[in-house]
Design brief:
This protein has one domain. By secondary structure, it is mostly helical. The two termini are 26 Å apart. Helix 1 packs across helix 3 and helix 5 packs antiparallel against helix 6. It has six helices and no strands. The radius of gyration is 19 Å and the shape is elongated.
Length: 169
């Protein structure tokens, strides 16, 4: 099915491109979720013009990010799942043979947390689409912070696991 692609680029180039796209999507997701989490953790109370980097960073309208975050999470998840097929054979087995159990464990935790985050997206989206309802403020805040923490954890663990084995080795 994908053999026609390999007439134009090598298999290694294909997986490298896939990993780079996954990383770029993850960075976009990380940025959006971090902005949104800061906006709920440290909201700007005054309607005056925001001054200073941190104030401007946290003064975003969080509701405007919700749909983009949901789409980015799903697309990043799909790319990660696709890359997982390669990881499962070429990275995880050697890590097990070398007894890198902690590395395996943090990656397993990443898989579970990101999947739980995927399952929480419909609730997250609903809470943000009803941002004017003050009854949802606490749930919206903590769900956003949870998703941001999971995103940061997943991003960092992905880099660590990649560095342990080395991409393409």
């Amino acid at each position: 099915m994908m053999d026609f692609v390999f007439d134009y680029i090598s298999v290694n180039a294909f997986w490298t491109i896939l990993l780079i796209v996954h990383g770029l999507l993850a960075v976009a997701l990380l940025g959006a979720l971090t902005h949104q989490a800061m906006s709920v953790l440290m909201p700007v109370r005054q309607a005056a013009i925001a001054s200073g980097f941190v104030t401007r960073f946290r003064s975003v309208q969080g509701a405007g990010y919700a749909t983009a975050i949901c789409v980015l999470w799903v697309v990043t998840f799909i790319f990660g799942a696709w890359i997982y097929t390669k990881y499962r054979i070429y990275v995880r087995i050697p890590l097990e043979q070398q007894e890198f159990w902690r590395t395996q464990g943090v990656f397993e935790l990443k898989e579970h947390l990101v999947t739980i985050g995927l399952g929480l997206l419909p609730i997250y989206w609903y809470l943000w689409k009803n941002a004017r309802n003050q009854e949802y403020d606490s749930a919206r805040k903590w769900l956003t912070v949870y998703l941001a923490a999971v995103c940061w954890y997943g991003f960092l663990v992905g880099h660590i696991v990649n560095n342990v084995r080395g991409f393409g080795s």
